[in-house]
């Protein structure tokens, strides 16, 4: 019962924060709401019996990726001009197609919820299980993801090296 | 790299040993630290051994002062000798650098080892001549500028009085 | 009964953490004074301990100014983040085998998550102040903390491998059998220590607020209790990191095994825990007294070029040993 209450609270917070994140004109405010919505979804994960996923959500999404987002916002230092820009871009008619898509998704979810019967299940998926699953049946996905990350790493290093060499006045 | 890390560890150890060292600072208002006579603190104007003001109002100190906090006005006494009519130091600007003391040809302006000059009203930091002038000779007892430099009096120029040497001709190279 | 204990532990932790943070304000200055051959604050009360109270009163009574050019929402939210996350982090610290708020099976990750969320307070403080020094401080902290989080997490994975659990109680129990992890996971310990300093941005790694070049970094515009919260957060994170080091690497509530059984039976476990944490805090203060602040690029290259390979090698060796020995 308590779990159900927690779930609905977290879900409401997540939905409201996500809505606010999309509609704010000030980029930094939008980011804060996005962080809140991520934290809300982390709690949802926890309530649903996936503590490991919940913590990873906090650790990686809220704790690292969003930090980088904020970092970029800080570097750009938008201020009032940025808010004006957003005002121009986010005109009402811009909302039509995204809202339609969202409504479709909502309908889908409602349909699924109506047909399937397993609501909050009591099984808890611990970190060990996740690890075994990841390196058992899903090892291919892990490998692909790691290749992708490696490519990203090499690319970033290449760009950075260019810059360093430019600074020293050398050519590649 | 290893050497750098080692040096950090050594400095950690050395600093840790200072836990047992005696403090270099003292409990200030109760226990006064020793300040040497040449400490640069509050400024005084001194008198020569005869009890006359040493200051000849030459303005060298005012020129030397990097923050321009000395103001004085020259006037003459009945012998035609110069002395300051007023002499004002704004201690809220003074940085106690001692330039004025070095510039002074008469050892008149001197810095003393007193630094406790806190005031609630900023205006009180401006010291006039009566606050600055002391009755003693300060750090240079027995020094009288005129006894060294000589002076012209009625009918006698510099160096012509008894027991006086001719002033040195500073434009000549001869000994 | 059970609920009452938890209740008491929660309030004890809350009060203890706040009290300890306040006392640390005085204690750190006093200790720094000793190490720098000064007297340190010794006026208020016996040994100057009243300074803790006086400081709190001063902070509470100061004008709490929100600059008109700042981003109000962000500006006010920022200082709360660090205090909340750090206090939440205390939830998983096991004081003794039976005395803790929560023994999560993901305790270690929870702690890491909380420290990573604490970054926001610095970041948003820098962002919301609309001040270039604050912005620079926030930028620095973002880069510094995101990178050191990586080493912090990785350095703990060796410990997790050996004990086979993220639960801090289990980790300490493993140490009862295997000996303290500071020996078997020495490099992990070193890296965690460094990363811990960088995460709580204390000297020598306090680049975000480096007062020599950035005025006060991210909290340049803060005054009164908002600044107080930043300071509280810093001390809380100091205590939290210290108790984590104690728990993970120094056997938590376990007494040192070389002591005779008589002593071990006599001293209650919680004393061991607090003694070790206190020593650790003193060591952090010693670091502040002794080591100069590195340059920013030095900090980053130190992290990525020395600490990261060190943790990876440590992980590799630990894994190999566990697998084949
Ligand atoms: S000590 Fe320096 S600043 Fe003060 S009056 Fe003399 S020259 Fe000026
Ligand atoms: S330099 Fe000396 S003699 Fe000249 S005005 Fe200043 S105090 Fe007087």
TrEMBL record, chain C:
It is a multi-pass membrane protein. The chain crosses the membrane at residues 73-94, 106-127, 148-168, 180-198, 235-254, 266-290, 302-324. It is found in: Membrane. Keywords: Membrane, Transmembrane, Transmembrane helix. It holds the Pfam family NADHdh. PANTHER family: NADH DEHYDROGENASE SUBUNIT 1, NADH-UBIQUINONE OXIDOREDUCTASE CHAIN 1. GO terms for molecular function: NADH dehydrogenase activity. This is NADH:ubiquinone oxidoreductase subunit 1 (Chain H). GO terms for cellular component: membrane. GO terms for biological process: aerobic respiration. It comes from marine metagenome.
